[in-house]
Design a protein that fits this description.
The complex is a heterodimer. By secondary structure, chain A is of the alpha/beta class. In chain A, 42% of the residues lie in helices and 17% in strands. In chain A, a hairpin with a 6-residue loop joins strand 10 and strand 11. The two termini of chain A are 13 Å apart. Chain B has 2 domains: 64 residues; 245 residues, Orthogonal Bundle (MetI-like fold), CATH 1.10.3720. Classes of the chains: A alpha/beta, B mainly alpha.
Chain lengths: 392, 337
């Protein structure tokens, strides 16, 4: 009885071990792993499906767990790339040296409001928005708002301010803009993924803020562009940097702002921590715009278990999203990358290398250890007569 | 060796049995002992690991802020301006849970009293089942219902009339009422903990021996007098235990509260008015943990919040044990006297 068990197990191992090594060497399909931004997820998911149609051996596994968590995984070297709405901070750069950063899409933040009877197009300037979110302008018929909107009938009602309660790239970009246009905001509140809001109610996610604004009369909040369009919300036109017009947020006006910013952007291996594209010149530039980024290690062998072949496929995929992939953007209400921004990514991807020595495959080693363990357990138990089950 | 074992199997079963009883049982005993010990150590190991992680993870923020992490009300995670004080969130947790308990405890005891003393037997089982069903609803469902449905009623029927009646002069009804505030969060929280407290208090009251009630009735007691004289003294410690269980859930509840409490931060979150957005220890963690920066103190501060919450839960449990023990003791004394 026991002899037969040992024999059977030995045969199984003889069959399994070569099969596992064979499997490892003949592998042709790859799963690219990425993690991070929830903002870019709908677009990333479209890319996943459409890239797989062209390259059937490539699967993308993208976890939309939030920008910060994506960066965390990149620092732990456990994903091929991270996607983030905010660039690496100086501290993060020290934790993950040698990371390339380049934009893969553009977002915009709209000022959504709910005033019964009023359509989109309330005119606001940056400083006025800052004063509202600081609680210094508390009523809709405040002269500061009324002067910008001659002819509009503004109600004598308290403004209900809604902001994000969770840390987010949207807040990062919005407070970036307010810090640039309002010195008052810069000194008292500042810029970050979560900031000390002087007033207001926090909603979780874009959906949370959008819900507060939609269901609460006389509310104001900042919401990502796509959410506002999809939910038919009313939103403000914001004064441009030149101060000569109030710009409606559309895919075109956001692209205009990003194009105006592209001349001053660093290369992919440069320092992105202070990069901001808000408030760019141009009469048609919507000022509250922001980039969303892809981050990868320049030396792909840094990542645990990476192979040279797979790293090539990762670069191919990322090159595709910068070019062919951009055609899916506008359908999903993302702003397609202008050529000047594409170039940053393409130049960066050209620098990607794979220097490390071949990483040993895990499969055969694991099988060997398993085989030794099983054999020794059987041997020991046969010798000592230890039984785990009843004897009869 | 193997051969001898096989020959053993072939030999008569009686012989096998005696061999097995003699040789096998010490092994089985040992294995049983090891498994039981492992299961018991598991609890201690997990708690120790949690404490170690919380303490080491939050050490940087205690070093920087010291005691003002508990007493300060500034909460700022902006780079180069970092400053963390958990006082508003400690207060928020206590106020939120406190109001919820004020609503939930009398209601739950009422439910328990009805089910154990007054309700017809036919009604008792279905009602108890419905209450237990309520306890099984996930908190996210309560949260969404509160956010999308209940909030509008609170705003129109409770908050606006109260605000119009007392105005901004009264402190606790000041502010623009629009439904996402401490009051709404507390009411939803109360609704969530009522099933827990009610079903346990029902069980406890039912466990009181019937002879006690009969004795009271024989002395001419009414239903209420019988309850007060016979049932209440017996179930006091159990009812305190049920309340504490509810409080434990109220303090730690995250999902539904985050959706409804309004999530103010820093000094703005110190609860003064019922109609004001607040924040609790659990919700600030849920809100900010995912995107907390790796470099600065933000993550450490949130872990520190976790430590405070852990200690709070620990204290609640210890106090509960002491209270129950005290009540049991005094009750025994009364019986002896």
């Amino acid at each position: 009885m026991t002899n037969k068990v040992i024999l059977g197990l030995t045969f199984m191992l003889i069959l399994i071990v070569p099969a596992m090594s064979l499997h490892a060497s003949a592998q042709t399909s790859y799963t690219i792993t990425g993690a991070g931004s929830t903002f870019v997820f709908p677009l990333m998911d479209t890319w996943r499906v459409d890239y797989n149609k062209i390259h059937q051996n490539i699967q993308l596994n993208y976890q939309s767990i939030g920008s910060g968590a994506g960066i965390k995984l990149l620092e732990q070297k456990s994903v091929d790339f991270a996607a983030s709405d905010a660039p690496l901070s100086t501290a993060d750069q020290q934790k993950a040296p040698g990371v390339l950063t380049f934009p893969d899409s553009i977002g915009a933040i709209t000022i959504a409001y709910n005033i019964p009877g009023m359509d989109k197009g309330l005119k606001l300037t940056g400083p006025v928005i800052a004063q509202i979110f600081m609680g210094n302008i508390t009523s809709w018929n405040d002269p500061a708002i009324a002067n910008l909107n001659p002819g509009a009938t503004l109600p004598n009602q308290n403004i209900v301010v809604a902001h994000r309660s969770d840390g987010s790239g949207t807040t990062y970009a919005f407070t970036d803009y307010l810090s640039k246009v309002s010195p008052d905001w810069k000194t008292k509140v500042g810029q970050g993924k979560s900031v000390p809001w002087p007033v207001g109610t926090g909603g979780n996610g874009n959906a949370g803020v959008a819900n507060i604004v939609k269901t609460t009369q006389y509310a104001i909040g900042y919401v990502e562009l796509a959410y506002v369009f999809q939910n038919n919300m009313t939103y403000a036109f914001v004064q441009n940097a030149d101060g000569n017009s109030f710009v409606e947020p559309t895919l075109d006006t956001v692209a205009a702002d990003a194009t105006a910013a592209s001349a001053n952007l660093p290369a992919a291996d440069g320092d992105w921590s202070k990069v901001s594209i808000v408030n760019q010149p141009g009469s048609n530039s919507y000022p509250i715009s922001t980039l969303t980024y892809v981050m990868i290690y320049q030396d792909m062998s840094t990542i645990n278990g990476e192979t040279q072949d797979k790293s090539t496929e990762v670069v191919n995929f990322l090159t595709w999203i910068l070019n062919d992939g951009q055609q899916y953007s506008s359908g999903l209400l993302y702003v397609p990358l202008p050529d000047s921004l594409k170039k940053i990514g393409e130049d960066g991807l050209a620098k990607v290398t794979f220097t490390g020595g071949a990483v040993p495959e895990f499969g055969p080693i694991a099988a060997l250890v398993l085989a030794i363990a099983i054999v020794s357990i059987i041997a020991v138990s046969a010798k000592t007569g230890l039984r785990f089950s009843a004897k009869f | 060796m193997v051969d001898s074992l096989i020959s053993n199997i072939i030999s008569s079963k009686c012989v096998m049995l005696t061999i097995k009883m003699k040789k096998g049982s010490p092994h089985v005993d040992k294995i049983f002992k090891i498994i039981a010990l492992a299961a018991a150590t598991y609890v201690l190991v997990i708690i120790a690991m949690i404490v170690i992680n919380l303490v080491t993870g939050s050490a940087p923020v205690w070093q920087k802020e010291g005691i003002s992490f508990l007493t300060g009300s500034d909460w700022n995670s902006v780079e180069d301006r970092e400053s963390y004080g958990a006082f508003p969130y400690i207060m928020g947790t206590l106020v939120n849970a406190g109001i919820a308990m004020l609503i939930a405890v009398p209601l739950s005891f009422g439910i328990g009293m009805f089910l154990s003393e007054l309700s017809p037997k036919l009604l008792r089982t279905p009602l108890a089942m419905v209450i237990e069903l309520l306890a099984a609803i996930p908190s996210v469902v309560y949260g969404l219902w509160g956010l999308l449905v209940f909030r509008a009623y609170i705003q129109d029927w409770i908050e606006t009339p109260l605000h119009n009646l007392f105005g901004d002069q009264s402190i606790i009804f000041a502010g623009t009422p629009f439904g996402l505030d401490i009051l709404t969060a507390s009411i939803i929280l109360a609704i969530m903990i009522i099933p827990t407290i009610a079903s346990i208090s029902k069980e406890i009251m039912l466990a009181v021996p019937n002879s006690q009630r009969e004795a009271a009735y024989m002395l001419g007691a009414t239903k209420w007098e019988a309850f007060r004289l016979a049932v209440l003294p017996y179930s006091k410690s159990g009812l305190i235990g049920a309340t504490i269980l509810g409080l434990g859930r109220a303090v730690g509840e995250t999902m539904a509260v985050t959706m409804l409490i309004g999530n103010a931060t820093g000094a703005a979150a110190i609860p003064t008015s019922l109609f004001q957005p607040g924040q609790t220890l659990a919700t600030i963690m849920a809100n900010e943990f995912a995107e907390a920066s790796q470099g600065g103190l933000h993550l450490a501060a949130l872990v520190g919040i976790g430590l405070i919450l852990f200690i709070m839960a620990f204290v609640i449990n210890v106090v509960a044990h002491l209270l129950v023990a005290k009540v049991v003791k005094s009750h025994e004394g009364a019986v002896l006297a």
